[in-house]
Design brief:
The complex is a heterodimer.
Chain A (H helix, E strand, L loop, with lengths): L7 H39 L5 H5 L13 H31 L3 H15 L2 H19 L7 H26 L2 H8 L5 H29 L3 H4 L18 H9 L4 H34 L1
Helix pairs in contact in A: 1-11, 3-6, 3-8, 3-10, 4-6, 5-6, 6-8, 7-8, 8-11, 10-11
Chain B lengths: L4 E12 L2 E12 L3 E5 L6 H8 L9 E9 L2 E2 L7 H7 E4 L10 H11 L6 H13 L3 H4 L12 H13 L5 E5 L7 H14 L4 E5 L3 H7 L2 E6 L2 E7 H6 L4 H7 L5
Helix pairs in contact in B: 3-4, 3-6, 4-6
Classes of the chains: A mainly alpha, B alpha/beta.
Chain lengths: 289, 253
C-alpha cells in the first residue's frame, strides 16, 4: 500500500496552489477596487446637485445652481433610442447570417465588421458629418446638425458589436436543439426564429446592453453630429447629450457648473444601469411566460 | 414474423468525407413493430438511423449511396420534401432536448409548423399526445410553465409527445433511455411497447436486455456492416453468426 504521509512533491504542490490562488484573488480585488473607487468618487462628487430640479430644468446661466440638464437627458435617451433602432435589426440579422452562412462572402463580411469595430469613433462622426450634415448645411446655411444624425453615428458604432454578440451567442446554442427542431420537419428559418434565437436571447440582450453602455458615453461622434444645445429642441435639429453637457460643464469657468459635471456623469452611469436592469428584467419575464 | 414492410433499405453505404461509415446495408423493416439496432460504439447504427430521416443531410462532406424506400417511395427522390419526410419519420434523441418554451408550446410547436390544428383542436391534440406519452397526469396543471423545469425522464416523455404531435408513421429513437434512471427507463419501455400498435418504432440501444425485452426485430451492426438481421428471438436465442453470439454474450464490444 502507498504511504499516506505527505511527500516533498505534494508539499511543493500545496505551496504553489496557495500562491496562485492568492495571486488570482489579489488581481480580482484590484480590478473590482478600481471600479468601486470610480463609482464611489463619482457618487461623492455628483450627489451635491443630484436633486429634482437638476432633472427637470434647463441650464441657467444667470443662476447656475438652479439650472438642470433635462434637455441633455432627453437628448441622450432619444439619440440612444435611434441608435438601438438602427443597430438591433441590422446587427441581429447580419449576426444570423454570420452564424449560418458559409463561404467567401461571409468571411469578407466578418473581416470588414472587425475593421468597422476598430474605426475610432471620431472618424465615424466625421463620416456622418461629411456625407450628411455638410451637404445639407451647404444648401441650408446654419442647419444640418441633428439628433437623428447623432443616433445614426452611434448606431453604426453599435452594429459590429451587436452582430458579433449575436454570432457568438448563436454558436453557443447546442446542435441537439437544432436537430430536435429539424427532426419535427421544421424548416430552417422557423427553427432559427422560434427555437434557436429565443434560447440565445439572454446573451444577445446582454450584448446589446453592453454595446449601448459603450456608445452612451461617446462624445466625439456627437460633436460633429448633434452639436449640443442650451435648450430643448426637436431631434431633427441640434440637441444636447449627456457627454457633451459633461464636457461643457467640466470646462466651464463657473465652479457650480464644474460640480454639476460630476452630477451629469452620475446621471449618465445611472441611465446605463437602469437600462441594463430593465433589459434583464424584460428577458427574465419573457422566459417565464 | 410476417407483416407489411414499412422501410426497405437497399445497398446503403455512407461516408463522412473519405471515411466510410456504412457498408452496403440491406434490410426490410416491418410495419407496426419495434426494430432494435445493437452493436458497439462507432459501429454505424446511429448513422444509419439518421439516414432514415435524412438528418445527415446537414453534415458537410457526407455522402450516401443506395436506396431507402418508405412505403414504396424513395426518400431521396427529388419530389420528396425533407420537411414532409421528417414529419412522417419522427425522431427522439439520446438527450432529452425540450425547446425553451412552455410544456404546451413544446407539443404544439410541430402542429403549428405544419398547420395541423389551432384553437380547441390544438388543445385536444396536445392533450392526446401528452396522454399517449404517459405524461399528461404529471403536467396537466402546469402546461404553461417552462419545460426546462421537468425532470430528465419527464423531458424525454415530453420529447416523445412532441414527436407524436405531427402524427408520424415511423418513430426513430436514438438511445432514448441512456440518460435516464431505471425507473424512467422502465416507463419509456412500456410506452414504446404501446406505441407499436400505431407506429413503426426503430430504436438504437446499447442496452441488450432492453433490445431483447421490447423489440420484435433486431439488427446487429459491427464496423459499419449489418452482421445479422432477423427476429429478436432468433438473434438473441440462436444467432447465425459467431460475431453476434460473441457480442450478445459479452465476449467483446
Amino acid at each position: 500500500m502507498t504511504s499516506l504521509a505527505s511527500t516533498p512533491v505534494l508539499f511543493q504542490r500545496r505551496v504553489l496552489n496557495a500562491l496562485f490562488q492568492a495571486l488570482c484573488g489579489i488581481c480580482a480585488v484590484i480590478a473590482i477596487a478600481v471600479l468601486g473607487y470610480v463609482l464611489w468618487f463619482l457618487f461623492r462628487q455628483g450627489i451635491t446637485y443630484f436633486k429634482p430640479s437638476f432633472f427637470t430644468r434647463l441650464p441657467d446661466n444667470v443662476n447656475p445652481a438652479l439650472g438642470g440638464i433635462k434637455h441633455s437627458i432627453l437628448g441622450s435617451v432619444s439619440i440612444l433610442g435611434i441608435a438601438l433602432g438602427i443597430s438591433i435589426p441590422i446587427g441581429i440579422l447580419s449576426g444570423i447570417y454570420q452564424a449560418e452562412a458559409n463561404g467567401k462572402l461571409c468571411q469578407i463580411v466578418r473581416f470588414l465588421t472587425d475593421v468597422l469595430n476598430g474605426i475610432p469613433s471620431i472618424v465615424i462622426g466625421l463620416f456622418i458629418y461629411a456625407i450628411w450634415i455638410l451637404p445639407y448645411a451647404q444648401k441650408h446655411p446654419g442647419q444640418g446638425y441633428s439628433g437623428i444624425a447623432g443616433g445614426a453615428a452611434l448606431g453604426i458604432m453599435m452594429i459590429p458589436l451587436v452582430m458579433r454578440t449575436t454570432d457568438e451567442m448563436l454558436h453557443l446554442v447546442p446542435q441537439s436543439l437544432w436537430d430536435a427542431s429539424l427532426a419535427l420537419g421544421t424548416p430552417r428559418w422557423r427553427t432559427m426564429l422560434f427555437v434557436v434565437l429565443p434560447s440565445a436571447r439572454n446573451g444577445i440582450v446582454t450584448g446589446i446592453m453592453l454595446a449601448l453602455a459603450r456608445v452612451a458615453g461617446e462624445t466625439a461622434p456627437l460633436l460633429f453630429t448633434v452639436l449640443g444645445n442650451e435648450f430643448l429642441g426637436p431631434i431633427t435639429g441640434p440637441v444636447d447629450a449627456l457627454p457633451l453637457r459633461l464636457y461643457k460643464y467640466a470646462t466651464s469657468s463657473d465652479p457650480v457648473q464644474n460640480a454639476m459635471a460630476w452630477s451629469t456623469a452620475l446621471t449618465l452611469i445611472l441611465i446605463v444601469l437602469i437600462l441594463s436592469i430593465l433589459a434583464r428584467f424584460l428577458t427574465r419575464a419573457g422566459k417565464r411566460s | 414474423m410476417q407483416t407489411t414492410p414499412c422501410v426497405t433499405v437497399q445497398n446503403v453505404s455512407f461516408w463522412y468525407g473519405s471515411n466510410q461509415a456504412l457498408f452496403d446495408i440491406n434490410m426490410t423493416i416491418p410495419q407496426h413493430a419495434v426494430t432494435a439496432f445493437i452493436g458497439p460504439s462507432g459501429c454505424g447504427k446511429s448513422t444509419f438511423l439518421r439516414c432514415l430521416n435524412r438528418m445527415n443531410d446537414r453534415i458537410d462532406g457526407s455522402k450516401m449511396t443506395g436506396k431507402i424506400e418508405l412505403s414504396g417511395q424513395d426518400i431521396r427522390d427529388r419530389s420528396v420534401s425533407v420537411e414532409a419526410l421528417r414529419r412522417t419519420v419522427g425522431m427522439v434523441f439520446q438527450k432529452p432536448v425540450p425547446f425553451p418554451m412552455s410544456i404546451y408550446d413544446n407539443v404544439a410547436f410541430g402542429p403549428r409548423t405544419h398547420q395541423l390544428a389551432r384553437g380547441r383542436a390544438l388543445d385536444e391534440l396536445v392533450e392526446k399526445c401528452l396522454i399517449d406519452a404517459a405524461l399528461w397526469d404529471e403536467v396537466k396543471d402546469k402546461l404553461k410553465s417552462s419545460a426546462m423545469a421537468l425532470s430528465g425522464g419527464q423531458q424525454q416523455r415530453l420529447c416523445i409527445a412532441r414527436t407524436l404531435s405531427v402524427s408520424p408513421d415511423v418513430i426513430l429513437m436514438d438511445e432514448p433511455c441512456s440518460a435516464l434512471d431505471p425507473n424512467s427507463t422502465h416507463r419509456i419501455e412500456e410506452l414504446i411497447t404501446r406505441l407499436k400498435n400505431e407506429y413503426t418504432v426503430i430504436i438504437v440501444t446499447h442496452n441488450l436486455q432492453q433490445a431483447k425485452r421490447i423489440s420484435d426485430m433486431t439488427g446487429f451492426f459491427l464496423r459499419g456492416e449489418l452482421v445479422e438481421f432477423g427476429s429478436s428471438e432468433t438473434v438473441f436465442g440462436t444467432p447465425a453468426r459467431k460475431e453476434t453470439d460473441d457480442y450478445i454474450n459479452g465476449r467483446f464490444g
